[in-house]
Request: fold
Amino acid sequence: MATETSDGADAGGVSDAGGSADAGESATDEGVDPYVRSITVTTVATVLGMVAGIVAHFVATAPDDITGVLVLVAAIVLQFPIYQLCGIDTSDFGTKDQLYVGFMTFTLWFVTWGILMTAGV
Reply:
């Protein structure tokens, strides 16, 4: 049939026993599927960045107030226990992963706080 691959599986990959077994083993070894891990890390970093920007807007008295930066640092540090609660092993985070978390949180914090200060909310 035209929709079958050379090993006899459907082209959709649903019945591909070799590929799904490898993916299942890697997900079981890590505890969380790599795709779910990346979505979780990105979502938590961006949401906490926005929350940190909103909190900084209400806590800091001026743009040069150090309290806004302390809120950002707290949001970055708070993420790692959240990842562990989600089943993500943070001991596997390398420098690149930690920089990614910090950068995403900083970016959303900066944009959110900047918009709120400019809008005069």
